[in-house]
Amino acid sequence: MVYPCPKKDFQVAVVGGGVCGLTCAIALHRAGVPVQLFEAAAKFGEIGAGIGVGPNAVQTLDKLGLLDAILRKVNPAELKDRYFSFYEGLSDSHEAIYRYPTLPEDKALGIHRAAFLDALVDVFDPSIAHFNKRCMSITGSQTDPKRLVIHFQDGTTHEVDVVLGADGVKSSVRDFVLEGKDRRLAFSHTVAYRGLIPWTQLQEAGFKIDASEQPVCIMGPSKHFILFPIKDGAIINVVAFAARYDIPIGVGEVNEKVQWVEAVNKDVLFKEYEGWGPDVEALLKCMPDKPGKWSIHVVHPPLESYVKGRIALLGDAAHAMLPHMGAGAGQGIEDAYMLSRLLGHPETNTQNIEAILEAYSRVRQPRAQMVWEGSRYVGRVYDLHGPSGPTSEGLRKDIGEVWGPVWHHSIEADLERAVASLRDNGTFATSH
Questions:
Q1: Among 233, 253, 198, which residue's Cα sits nearest to residue 111?
Q2: Burial of 312 (0-12, 13-18, 19+ CB in 10 A)
């Protein structure tokens, strides 16, 4: 890949080197925007297991020229329309309740999170990466009031024109967008137990539901399981959720000093899902001896804007959400696309950066918040707390075609709206 020489008169710093930050840095670099990436860890790496890449994210990755790199890490045949099958969790029969309708163009992908990151690293220019750089604060430059200085934990600093915070749900950059008034960080009162299980092991244990080809959801009261195949169906990514609905999101203190991910004894799972059907019992027997327990935190209440001056947020730093639609990573990828296209626009320069970032926020905030709300909604449905009740008919009605607005969305139309708004307010020249 031949990259263009930097041609913009401003410099960008991306804080955070996960999937979202790397995607954004690659896209900016390819667009000719001088960019440096700062990662708190000693190397690139992702915690977690599988990651869902929905049709909208697939299309956006393709527009960014990154899809082929992702597909080199998997069997390309895994990119296919992925219908979701829903089953009842407590009975011996595990009644099939619903199969989500898909279109031939609804191509999606399940991939191990580490493999996704590796694919991005393969096409990333390592000369623009800086490790062991944990952002502690951002201040104005003493020599140029328009520039920013990032202060890192190791005592070093970096002066730059634009800071993009892709530093996750615990984002330090978000503090500066919010001016330190409120972290907007909340416990969702949902935990998730994660594991990777070979499909053959599940079969040998007596698991009957077919999860080797397409994603599966097994539903029950205040709890559900998501299974989706990765590595060409050889491995099943399992996520077991348990939620409390008697406590609203945002109620209770958030302790950022304790570990939000911890290993627990498998006995915890048997107690949590006691009384569920035989397939669930078989699945639990196959879970790792020390499955990971994740306490899921979200950004809540929602940010009114992702931008403050020349600082902008993207990904989980802006809109960390419940994972029930498998759409959180896709929203971060859409953020990266929008930022790279707007900052790389021929008419963007150091004088109009703040207006550019405001246009990004105006377009992206309502879109990402719609997905945030949808993720909370479908989680309630999976846990038999949907508006139409826990019957099979009620569940089918509530699930309906809920992914439609997420999957069938034009990111290019969003970009056109953002550019049009910049022409309308005089930031960009009026087209003739």
A1: 233
A2: buried
